[in-house]
Amino acid sequence: MGHIKPMLNIAQLLCHAGLQVTFLNTEHNHHRLTQLQQLSTHFPTLHFESISDGLPKDHPRTFDLTKDMVISFKSVTKPLFREMLAEYSRNSDLGSVTCVIVDGIMYSFANDVAEELGIRVITTRPYGACCLWSFCCISKLIEEGHIPVGAKEDLDQEIKTVPGMEGLLRRRDLPSVCRQPITDPLLQLFIEESKTMTRASGIILNTFDDLEGPILCHIAPLFPNVYTIGPLNALVKTKIGDDIISQCLSSSSNLLEPNHNCMMWLDSKPLRSVVYVSFGSIARVTRSQLLEIWYGLINSGMSFLLVIRGDMIEGVKGDDMIPMELEEATKERGFVVDWAPQEDVLAHSAVGGFFTHSGWNSILESIGAGVPLICWPLFGDHQLNSRWVSEGWKIGLDMKDTCDRSTVEIMIKTLMKHRREEIIRSMDRFSKLAHDSISPGGSSYNNLEKLIEDLRRI
Protein backbone atom coordinates (compact mmCIF):
# COMPACT_ATOMS: atom_id res chain seq x y z
CA MET A 1 0.00 0.00 0.00
CA GLY A 2 2.92 2.33 0.66
CA HIS A 3 3.73 2.22 -3.07
CA ILE A 4 0.23 1.90 -4.52
CA LYS A 5 -1.40 4.78 -2.65
CA PRO A 6 0.90 7.60 -3.84
CA MET A 7 0.94 6.20 -7.39
CA LEU A 8 -2.86 6.19 -7.46
CA ASN A 9 -2.85 9.75 -6.10
CA ILE A 10 -0.60 10.81 -8.99
CA ALA A 11 -2.90 9.06 -11.46
CA GLN A 12 -5.95 10.85 -10.03
CA LEU A 13 -4.26 14.24 -10.21
CA LEU A 14 -3.18 13.73 -13.83
CA CYS A 15 -6.63 12.50 -14.88
CA HIS A 16 -8.25 15.43 -13.11
CA ALA A 17 -6.15 17.63 -15.42
CA GLY A 18 -7.57 15.78 -18.46
CA LEU A 19 -4.64 13.48 -19.24
CA GLN A 20 -5.13 9.85 -20.32
CA VAL A 21 -3.63 7.53 -17.71
CA THR A 22 -3.29 3.76 -17.61
CA PHE A 23 -2.50 2.47 -14.12
CA LEU A 24 -0.46 -0.73 -14.46
CA ASN A 25 -0.26 -2.94 -11.39
CA THR A 26 0.81 -6.49 -10.67
CA GLU A 27 -1.98 -9.04 -10.97
CA HIS A 28 -1.45 -9.97 -7.32
CA ASN A 29 -2.27 -6.47 -6.07
CA HIS A 30 -4.73 -5.55 -8.83
CA HIS A 31 -7.21 -8.20 -7.65
CA ARG A 32 -6.94 -6.95 -4.05
CA LEU A 33 -8.03 -3.42 -4.96
CA THR A 34 -11.80 -3.51 -4.61
CA GLN A 35 -12.91 -0.01 -5.63
CA LEU A 36 -11.30 0.48 -9.03
CA GLN A 37 -14.66 0.76 -10.77
CA GLN A 38 -15.55 3.67 -8.49
CA LEU A 39 -12.32 5.41 -9.51
CA SER A 40 -13.03 4.83 -13.21
CA THR A 41 -16.49 6.35 -12.76
CA HIS A 42 -15.06 9.56 -11.31
CA PHE A 43 -12.14 9.66 -13.75
CA PRO A 44 -13.18 8.54 -17.25
CA THR A 45 -9.60 8.95 -18.54
CA LEU A 46 -8.20 6.56 -15.90
CA HIS A 47 -7.81 2.95 -17.06
CA PHE A 48 -6.47 -0.10 -15.25
CA GLU A 49 -4.28 -2.92 -16.50
CA SER A 50 -2.42 -5.69 -14.68
CA ILE A 51 0.69 -7.69 -15.41
CA SER A 52 2.23 -10.82 -13.90
CA ASP A 53 5.08 -10.43 -11.42
CA GLY A 54 6.09 -13.99 -12.31
CA LEU A 55 5.78 -15.30 -8.75
CA PRO A 56 3.54 -18.17 -7.54
CA LYS A 57 0.18 -17.16 -6.08
CA ASP A 58 1.21 -18.36 -2.61
CA HIS A 59 4.46 -16.36 -2.52
CA PRO A 60 4.28 -14.06 0.56
CA ARG A 61 5.83 -11.05 -1.25
CA THR A 62 7.25 -9.67 2.00
CA PHE A 63 10.00 -7.07 2.25
CA ASP A 64 12.69 -9.61 3.13
CA LEU A 65 11.90 -11.45 -0.13
CA THR A 66 12.16 -8.37 -2.32
CA LYS A 67 15.06 -9.94 -4.20
CA ASP A 68 12.71 -12.70 -5.42
CA MET A 69 10.44 -10.05 -6.89
CA VAL A 70 13.29 -8.16 -8.50
CA ILE A 71 14.65 -11.28 -10.19
CA SER A 72 11.17 -12.22 -11.37
CA PHE A 73 10.45 -8.70 -12.66
CA LYS A 74 13.52 -8.81 -14.87
CA SER A 75 13.04 -12.32 -16.19
CA VAL A 76 9.23 -12.53 -16.50
CA THR A 77 7.65 -9.07 -16.23
CA LYS A 78 10.11 -7.18 -18.43
CA PRO A 79 9.26 -9.00 -21.72
CA LEU A 80 5.54 -8.83 -20.86
CA PHE A 81 5.85 -5.09 -20.30
CA ARG A 82 7.68 -4.65 -23.61
CA GLU A 83 4.89 -6.44 -25.47
CA MET A 84 2.21 -4.44 -23.64
CA LEU A 85 3.75 -1.10 -24.62
CA ALA A 86 4.20 -2.26 -28.20
CA GLU A 87 0.57 -3.43 -28.32
CA TYR A 88 -0.61 -0.01 -27.10
CA SER A 89 1.23 1.57 -30.01
CA ARG A 90 -0.36 -0.84 -32.52
CA ASN A 91 -3.94 -1.28 -31.40
CA SER A 92 -4.95 0.75 -28.37
CA ASP A 93 -7.95 3.07 -28.65
CA LEU A 94 -6.11 5.28 -26.14
CA GLY A 95 -3.27 5.95 -28.54
CA SER A 96 0.40 5.22 -28.10
CA VAL A 97 2.12 5.75 -24.77
CA THR A 98 4.07 9.02 -24.58
CA CYS A 99 5.44 8.76 -21.05
CA VAL A 100 5.94 6.06 -18.44
CA ILE A 101 5.89 7.05 -14.75
CA VAL A 102 7.68 4.28 -12.89
CA ASP A 103 7.68 3.23 -9.25
CA GLY A 104 11.26 2.98 -8.02
CA ILE A 105 11.44 -0.75 -7.44
CA MET A 106 10.55 -1.40 -11.08
CA TYR A 107 12.69 1.35 -12.55
CA SER A 108 15.56 -0.59 -14.14
CA PHE A 109 13.58 -2.95 -16.32
CA ALA A 110 10.82 -0.44 -17.12
CA ASN A 111 13.34 2.21 -18.12
CA ASP A 112 15.18 -0.27 -20.37
CA VAL A 113 11.96 -1.14 -22.21
CA ALA A 114 10.80 2.47 -22.52
CA GLU A 115 14.17 3.58 -23.86
CA GLU A 116 14.09 0.80 -26.46
CA LEU A 117 10.72 2.08 -27.67
CA GLY A 118 11.65 5.77 -27.52
CA ILE A 119 9.24 6.59 -24.67
CA ARG A 120 9.97 9.25 -22.06
CA VAL A 121 10.42 8.02 -18.46
CA ILE A 122 9.76 9.81 -15.18
CA THR A 123 10.64 7.93 -12.00
CA THR A 124 9.08 8.15 -8.55
CA ARG A 125 10.18 6.95 -5.15
CA PRO A 126 7.85 5.91 -2.28
CA TYR A 127 10.10 7.56 0.30
CA GLY A 128 11.32 11.07 0.99
CA ALA A 129 14.22 13.10 -0.37
CA CYS A 130 16.36 12.39 2.71
CA CYS A 131 16.20 8.65 2.14
CA LEU A 132 16.71 9.03 -1.62
CA TRP A 133 19.83 11.09 -1.01
CA SER A 134 21.20 8.52 1.45
CA PHE A 135 20.80 5.81 -1.21
CA CYS A 136 22.67 8.03 -3.66
CA CYS A 137 25.54 8.13 -1.15
CA ILE A 138 25.72 4.37 -0.46
CA SER A 139 28.73 3.71 -2.72
CA LYS A 140 30.64 6.48 -0.96
CA LEU A 141 29.67 5.13 2.46
CA ILE A 142 30.90 1.66 1.47
CA GLU A 143 34.24 3.10 0.40
CA GLU A 144 34.56 4.85 3.77
CA GLY A 145 33.77 1.66 5.70
CA HIS A 146 30.44 2.80 7.17
CA ILE A 147 28.60 0.01 5.33
CA PRO A 148 27.82 -2.74 6.14
CA VAL A 149 26.61 -1.79 9.59
CA GLY A 150 27.31 -4.83 11.77
CA ALA A 151 25.62 -5.72 15.04
CA LYS A 152 28.91 -5.26 16.93
CA GLU A 153 29.74 -1.91 15.37
CA ASP A 154 29.50 1.43 17.14
CA LEU A 155 25.99 2.21 15.92
CA ASP A 156 26.08 5.73 17.36
CA GLN A 157 29.17 6.72 15.40
CA GLU A 158 28.39 9.94 13.53
CA ILE A 159 28.50 9.91 9.73
CA LYS A 160 29.88 13.23 8.53
CA THR A 161 30.18 12.62 4.80
CA VAL A 162 26.53 12.75 3.65
CA PRO A 163 26.07 16.40 2.62
CA GLY A 164 23.09 18.02 4.32
CA MET A 165 22.99 15.50 7.18
CA GLU A 166 26.07 16.57 9.13
CA GLY A 167 25.52 16.39 12.87
CA LEU A 168 22.38 14.29 12.47
CA LEU A 169 23.15 10.95 10.82
CA ARG A 170 24.52 7.98 12.78
CA ARG A 171 25.28 4.49 11.51
CA ARG A 172 22.11 3.14 13.14
CA ASP A 173 20.06 5.70 11.18
CA LEU A 174 21.07 4.39 7.74
CA PRO A 175 18.36 2.51 5.79
CA SER A 176 17.98 -1.07 6.99
CA VAL A 177 19.48 -2.53 3.83
CA CYS A 178 22.82 -1.03 4.94
CA ARG A 179 22.92 -3.67 7.68
CA GLN A 180 23.29 -6.40 5.03
CA PRO A 181 26.59 -7.69 3.58
CA ILE A 182 27.90 -5.65 0.68
CA THR A 183 27.20 -8.58 -1.67
CA ASP A 184 23.52 -8.77 -0.62
CA PRO A 185 21.31 -8.61 -3.76
CA LEU A 186 18.94 -6.09 -2.20
CA LEU A 187 21.76 -3.71 -1.26
CA GLN A 188 23.21 -4.09 -4.76
CA LEU A 189 19.75 -3.33 -6.19
CA PHE A 190 19.60 0.00 -4.37
CA ILE A 191 23.11 0.87 -5.52
CA GLU A 192 22.18 0.02 -9.11
CA GLU A 193 18.86 1.88 -8.97
CA SER A 194 20.50 4.99 -7.52
CA LYS A 195 22.88 5.10 -10.48
CA THR A 196 20.43 4.30 -13.27
CA MET A 197 17.49 6.45 -12.11
CA THR A 198 19.31 9.61 -13.20
CA ARG A 199 18.68 8.51 -16.80
CA ALA A 200 15.04 9.51 -16.29
CA SER A 201 13.79 12.84 -17.60
CA GLY A 202 12.54 13.70 -14.14
CA ILE A 203 11.60 12.42 -10.69
CA ILE A 204 8.35 12.86 -8.76
CA LEU A 205 8.72 13.01 -4.98
CA ASN A 206 5.95 12.85 -2.41
CA THR A 207 7.34 15.64 -0.25
CA PHE A 208 7.28 19.43 -0.02
CA ASP A 209 10.05 21.97 -0.31
CA ASP A 210 9.79 23.42 3.19
CA LEU A 211 10.17 19.96 4.74
CA GLU A 212 13.24 18.71 2.85
CA GLY A 213 14.58 21.78 1.06
CA PRO A 214 18.24 21.45 2.12
CA ILE A 215 18.39 17.85 0.88
CA LEU A 216 16.48 18.63 -2.32
CA CYS A 217 19.27 21.06 -3.19
CA HIS A 218 21.66 18.09 -3.38
CA ILE A 219 19.24 15.98 -5.45
CA ALA A 220 18.30 18.67 -7.97
CA PRO A 221 21.56 18.50 -10.01
CA LEU A 222 21.00 14.76 -10.64
CA PHE A 223 17.79 15.21 -12.66
CA PRO A 224 16.54 17.47 -15.45
CA ASN A 225 13.37 17.99 -13.39
CA VAL A 226 12.45 17.37 -9.75
CA TYR A 227 8.71 17.53 -9.08
CA THR A 228 7.97 17.78 -5.35
CA ILE A 229 4.18 17.48 -5.16
CA GLY A 230 3.47 16.25 -1.65
CA PRO A 231 1.78 15.53 0.60
CA LEU A 232 -0.04 13.73 -2.22
CA ASN A 233 -2.98 12.55 -0.11
CA ALA A 234 -3.72 16.18 0.82
CA LEU A 235 -3.02 17.60 -2.66
CA VAL A 236 -5.63 15.24 -4.16
CA LYS A 237 -8.25 16.69 -1.81
CA THR A 238 -7.23 20.26 -2.62
CA LYS A 239 -7.33 19.75 -6.38
CA ILE A 240 -10.47 17.62 -6.57
CA GLY A 241 -12.29 19.91 -4.20
CA ASP A 242 -15.18 17.77 -2.91
CA ASP A 243 -14.22 16.39 0.50
CA ILE A 244 -16.71 13.54 0.38
CA ILE A 245 -15.55 12.37 -3.04
CA SER A 246 -11.87 12.72 -2.19
CA GLN A 247 -12.23 10.74 1.03
CA CYS A 248 -14.06 8.05 -0.86
CA LEU A 249 -11.37 7.93 -3.53
CA SER A 250 -8.58 7.68 -0.95
CA SER A 251 -9.97 4.31 0.19
CA SER A 252 -9.48 2.87 -3.30
CA SER A 253 -5.82 2.18 -2.52
CA ASN A 254 -6.65 -0.09 0.42
CA LEU A 255 -5.46 -3.68 0.11
CA LEU A 256 -7.11 -4.31 3.50
CA GLU A 257 -10.66 -3.56 4.58
CA PRO A 258 -10.71 -0.90 7.33
CA ASN A 259 -12.84 -1.33 10.44
CA HIS A 260 -14.82 1.91 10.83
CA ASN A 261 -16.21 0.96 14.26
CA CYS A 262 -13.11 2.52 15.78
CA MET A 263 -14.37 5.96 14.70
CA MET A 264 -17.41 5.66 16.99
CA TRP A 265 -15.10 4.60 19.82
CA LEU A 266 -12.94 7.68 19.19
CA ASP A 267 -16.06 9.86 19.34
CA SER A 268 -16.40 8.91 23.01
CA LYS A 269 -12.87 10.02 23.97
CA PRO A 270 -11.64 13.43 25.18
CA LEU A 271 -9.61 15.81 23.05
CA ARG A 272 -6.09 14.55 22.15
CA SER A 273 -6.28 11.72 24.69
CA VAL A 274 -5.75 8.66 22.43
CA VAL A 275 -2.55 7.10 21.09
CA TYR A 276 -3.04 5.52 17.66
CA VAL A 277 -0.78 2.50 17.05
CA SER A 278 -0.24 1.04 13.58
CA PHE A 279 2.79 -0.50 11.85
CA GLY A 280 1.66 -0.35 8.25
CA SER A 281 0.38 -2.89 5.74
CA ILE A 282 3.30 -5.35 5.48
CA ALA A 283 5.50 -5.04 8.58
CA ARG A 284 5.63 -8.10 10.83
CA VAL A 285 6.51 -8.28 14.52
CA THR A 286 7.13 -11.10 16.97
CA ARG A 287 4.58 -11.97 19.62
CA SER A 288 7.08 -10.86 22.27
CA GLN A 289 7.49 -7.43 20.64
CA LEU A 290 3.75 -6.95 20.37
CA LEU A 291 3.22 -7.85 24.03
CA GLU A 292 5.95 -5.44 25.16
CA ILE A 293 4.30 -2.62 23.18
CA TRP A 294 0.87 -3.61 24.45
CA TYR A 295 1.96 -3.68 28.11
CA GLY A 296 3.71 -0.35 27.62
CA LEU A 297 0.46 1.14 26.31
CA ILE A 298 -1.47 -0.18 29.31
CA ASN A 299 1.15 1.00 31.81
CA SER A 300 1.18 4.51 30.30
CA GLY A 301 -2.38 5.06 31.47
CA MET A 302 -3.39 6.50 28.08
CA SER A 303 -6.28 5.36 25.90
CA PHE A 304 -5.14 3.67 22.70
CA LEU A 305 -6.35 2.41 19.33
CA LEU A 306 -4.23 -0.59 18.32
CA VAL A 307 -4.07 -2.11 14.82
CA ILE A 308 -3.15 -5.81 14.68
CA ARG A 309 -3.36 -7.21 11.15
CA GLY A 310 -4.18 -10.89 10.81
CA ASP A 311 -0.78 -11.56 9.24
CA MET A 312 1.24 -9.20 11.43
CA ILE A 313 2.55 -11.52 14.15
CA GLU A 314 5.36 -13.89 13.22
CA GLY A 315 5.17 -17.54 14.27
CA VAL A 316 1.92 -17.33 16.22
CA LYS A 317 0.30 -20.65 17.05
CA GLY A 318 -3.30 -21.30 17.99
CA ASP A 319 -2.48 -21.62 21.69
CA ASP A 320 -0.55 -18.35 21.85
CA MET A 321 -3.28 -16.50 23.70
CA ILE A 322 -3.20 -12.87 24.84
CA PRO A 323 -2.74 -12.76 28.65
CA MET A 324 -6.05 -12.29 30.47
CA GLU A 325 -4.77 -9.24 32.38
CA LEU A 326 -3.95 -7.56 29.07
CA GLU A 327 -7.39 -8.28 27.64
CA GLU A 328 -9.12 -6.92 30.74
CA ALA A 329 -7.03 -3.74 30.81
CA THR A 330 -7.67 -3.18 27.10
CA LYS A 331 -11.42 -3.35 27.63
CA GLU A 332 -11.11 -0.35 29.96
CA ARG A 333 -9.25 2.07 27.70
CA GLY A 334 -8.21 0.34 24.48
CA PHE A 335 -9.72 -0.62 21.14
CA VAL A 336 -8.20 -3.21 18.80
CA VAL A 337 -8.90 -3.53 15.06
CA ASP A 338 -7.32 -5.51 12.24
CA TRP A 339 -7.12 -2.39 10.05
CA ALA A 340 -8.12 1.25 10.48
CA PRO A 341 -9.06 4.12 8.14
CA GLN A 342 -5.81 5.88 8.97
CA GLU A 343 -6.39 9.33 7.50
CA ASP A 344 -9.77 9.56 9.25
CA VAL A 345 -8.24 8.37 12.51
CA LEU A 346 -5.41 10.92 12.41
CA ALA A 347 -7.88 13.70 11.61
CA HIS A 348 -10.05 12.83 14.64
CA SER A 349 -9.86 15.31 17.51
CA ALA A 350 -9.42 12.54 20.09
CA VAL A 351 -6.09 11.37 18.65
CA GLY A 352 -3.08 13.00 20.31
CA GLY A 353 -0.20 10.78 19.18
CA PHE A 354 0.77 8.24 16.53
CA PHE A 355 2.96 5.22 17.42
CA THR A 356 4.21 4.21 13.97
CA HIS A 357 6.69 2.09 12.03
CA SER A 358 7.87 5.34 10.39
CA GLY A 359 6.67 4.64 6.86
CA TRP A 360 6.81 7.74 4.66
CA ASN A 361 3.08 7.89 3.92
CA SER A 362 2.30 7.62 7.63
CA ILE A 363 4.70 10.44 8.49
CA LEU A 364 3.26 12.77 5.83
CA GLU A 365 -0.31 11.94 6.87
CA SER A 366 0.60 12.65 10.49
CA ILE A 367 2.20 15.98 9.57
CA GLY A 368 -0.90 16.92 7.59
CA ALA A 369 -3.09 16.15 10.59
CA GLY A 370 -0.73 17.79 13.09
CA VAL A 371 -0.35 14.61 15.17
CA PRO A 372 3.11 14.07 16.79
CA LEU A 373 4.86 10.72 16.41
CA ILE A 374 6.60 7.93 18.26
CA CYS A 375 8.73 6.10 15.71
CA TRP A 376 9.62 2.42 16.01
CA PRO A 377 11.42 1.81 12.70
CA LEU A 378 11.48 -1.69 11.26
CA PHE A 379 12.95 -1.77 7.74
CA GLY A 380 13.55 0.13 4.51
CA ASP A 381 13.54 3.90 4.92
CA HIS A 382 12.09 3.73 8.45
CA GLN A 383 15.42 4.11 10.27
CA LEU A 384 16.29 7.34 8.48
CA ASN A 385 12.74 8.72 8.67
CA SER A 386 12.61 8.25 12.44
CA ARG A 387 15.87 10.15 12.93
CA TRP A 388 14.56 13.12 10.95
CA VAL A 389 11.29 13.04 12.89
CA SER A 390 13.07 13.26 16.25
CA GLU A 391 16.21 15.29 15.55
CA GLY A 392 15.74 16.93 12.15
CA TRP A 393 12.19 18.23 12.38
CA LYS A 394 11.60 17.60 16.11
CA ILE A 395 8.01 16.47 15.56
CA GLY A 396 8.24 13.26 17.56
CA LEU A 397 10.40 10.68 19.30
CA ASP A 398 12.65 7.87 18.02
CA MET A 399 12.45 4.41 19.68
CA LYS A 400 14.95 2.80 17.32
CA ASP A 401 16.55 -0.60 18.05
CA THR A 402 14.69 -1.20 21.29
CA CYS A 403 11.33 -2.65 22.30
CA ASP A 404 10.52 -3.10 25.97
CA ARG A 405 7.46 -2.11 27.96
CA SER A 406 9.24 0.42 30.19
CA THR A 407 10.66 2.30 27.18
CA VAL A 408 7.25 2.27 25.47
CA GLU A 409 5.63 3.66 28.63
CA ILE A 410 8.23 6.42 28.94
CA MET A 411 7.93 7.33 25.25
CA ILE A 412 4.14 7.64 25.44
CA LYS A 413 4.20 9.72 28.62
CA THR A 414 6.90 11.97 27.14
CA LEU A 415 4.93 12.52 23.92
CA MET A 416 1.52 12.94 25.49
CA LYS A 417 2.54 14.86 28.64
CA HIS A 418 6.11 15.84 29.51
CA ARG A 419 7.37 17.27 26.19
CA ARG A 420 4.03 17.70 24.49
CA GLU A 421 4.00 21.50 24.15
CA GLU A 422 7.54 21.57 22.72
CA ILE A 423 6.85 18.86 20.13
CA ILE A 424 3.41 20.23 19.24
CA ARG A 425 4.91 23.66 18.46
CA SER A 426 7.24 22.13 15.91
CA MET A 427 4.53 19.86 14.49
CA ASP A 428 2.10 22.77 14.13
CA ARG A 429 4.75 24.68 12.16
CA PHE A 430 5.35 21.86 9.67
CA SER A 431 1.64 21.09 9.45
CA LYS A 432 0.99 24.69 8.39
CA LEU A 433 3.85 24.55 5.87
CA ALA A 434 2.40 21.33 4.42
CA HIS A 435 -1.01 22.99 4.06
CA ASP A 436 0.56 26.05 2.44
CA SER A 437 2.48 23.90 -0.06
CA ILE A 438 -0.67 22.31 -1.49
CA SER A 439 -2.72 25.51 -1.54
CA PRO A 440 -2.96 27.62 -4.73
CA GLY A 441 0.39 29.33 -5.20
CA GLY A 442 2.17 26.84 -2.91
CA SER A 443 5.28 24.94 -4.02
CA SER A 444 3.63 21.52 -4.43
CA TYR A 445 0.58 23.02 -6.12
CA ASN A 446 2.79 24.87 -8.62
CA ASN A 447 5.07 21.87 -9.17
CA LEU A 448 2.05 19.74 -10.07
CA GLU A 449 1.03 22.35 -12.64
CA LYS A 450 4.55 22.23 -14.09
CA LEU A 451 4.46 18.43 -14.25
CA ILE A 452 1.12 18.50 -16.10
CA GLU A 453 2.39 21.15 -18.50
CA ASP A 454 5.57 19.15 -19.20
CA LEU A 455 3.56 15.96 -19.86
CA ARG A 456 1.30 17.76 -22.31
CA ARG A 457 4.35 18.93 -24.25
CA ILE A 458 5.69 15.39 -24.82
What is shown here, in short?
The protein contains 20 helices and 14 strands.
Word description of this protein:
- The chain is α/β, with parallel strands linked by helices and 458 residues long.
- It has 2 domains: 4-252 and 438-457, Rossmann fold; 257-418, Glycogen Phosphorylase B (Rossmann fold).
- The protein contains 20 helices and 14 strands.
- The strands form 4 sheets. Strands 11-9-7-12-13-14 form a 6-stranded parallel beta sheet, with helices on both faces. The protein has a 4-stranded parallel beta sheet with strand order 3-4-5-6.
- Helix 10 (232-240) packs antiparallel against helix 11 and helix 13 (287-300) packs parallel to helix 18 (405-418).
- The longest helix has 26 residues, at 66-91.
- Keywords: Glycosyltransferase, Transferase.
- GO terms for molecular function: quercetin 3-O-glucosyltransferase activity; quercetin 7-O-glucosyltransferase activity.
- Pfam families: UDPGT (PF00201).
- It comes from Castanea mollissima (Chinese chestnut).
